[in-house]
Amino acid sequence: MTSLVILRTLYFFTIVQCLKSGLAQQLVDVDRLEECPGGYCVRLHLCINETIVTEEEFEIDIRNRIGSDPIEVSTNKDENPDPCEQFLLRCCPAEKDSTTISPIEPAISTDRPEVIPEPPRLCGRVYPAGRIVHVQDDSLAQYGEFPWTAGLFQTGGSAEGSAYICGGSLIHPRVILTAAHCVRNVTHPDQLMVRLGEWDIANENEPYAHQDFAVHKIIKHQEWHPQKYHNDLALLILDKPVALAEGINTVCLPEVDEDFNGKRCVAVGWGKDVRKNRQYADVLKKIKVPVIEHDRCQGMLRQTKLTSVFRLDGSFLCAGGEIGVDTCKGDGGSPLMCDRGDGTYVQAGIVAWGIDCGRENVPGVYVKVAKFVDWMKETIEREGLTMA
Description:
Residues 1-18 form the signal peptide. This protein is of the alpha+beta class and 388 residues long. Helix content is 11%, strand content 26%. It has helices spanning 2-21, 62-67, 294-301, 373-382; strands at 34-36, 39-43, 47-48, 51-52, 71-73, 89-93, 133-135, 149-154, 163-172, 175-178, 192-196, 211-220, 234-238, 264-269, 285-292, 316-320, 335-339, 345-353, 363-368. The strands form 5 sheets. A 6-stranded antiparallel β-barrel has the order 8-9-10-13-12-11. Strands 14-15-16-19-18-17 form a 6-stranded antiparallel beta barrel. A hairpin with an 8-residue loop joins strand 8 (149-154) and strand 9.
């Protein structure tokens, strides 16, 4: 009887939330519930105070309720053992009352509900409703922390068997900014898929479902040099606009030639983790690195195998040079972002290349986004789109 009660209650909860918000795909799928000792394996945000969310919460918007109070989760299974094997699932105690709960029919009203307009979304900002889960690992991005981060997947024309190839960033509801070298082997837009709202690429149990988009057009910078990687940036025009929502937003572009030297900025990506045996990351990782002045960076890179004849092109900026803190293989195309001091992030760079990963006094090299702001805006406008 207990199992029946829980399943019926969760089913009704899902239907009501679907009617109210259209987000049923983000809630419990009753057909996939697995039992655990004394309860069921449910997503973290659906286990509140050791209780599976049921009828009492029908009038509460689950996103707002838990967005202001993130759920702590450890990435160390030894510290926080749970019988539910998948990350972001929790064994939540089942309802002990064996009395059957009769579903309550939702009231139907012909009155037009008051519509409260959502405030316009500002670029570079994180919205609290997207911050649901908090991980206790400073090498990982928090869930929803950088909602403009995109994953690029090469599909060969089909979403089946797609492979992650690079990162990117959402700079307009229909435009992804990435590195040109990421798409050098892509012969047709149909071979690409862009994923937004992603965090753990190996897990489907995140609070909000990711969104996948087809690519309509690939525009590489006309002066991109495929051997030297100069002007290494590309714009991907999506086939339809992205609906900005919890966990998805645009990042701000810098001012033309804006200077970030000396600032400590954040880079993210799903590439190899320098601090974790260089394994490719499932959960979006982040690092904080100092931006280094051009001539100083050139001098540091001349101490490597590039030798004293190396010249750092003006289309690049450098960041890092601290041992064990660096972007690495697989992070290409991902953003380097700086906080303007008010919680607004602006994209300073695009992960481009480096000499090995995480070596002391060997900075990582990024595309200097501020150098290409005019080119990006003009290119986007030629596609019939408007930049704010």
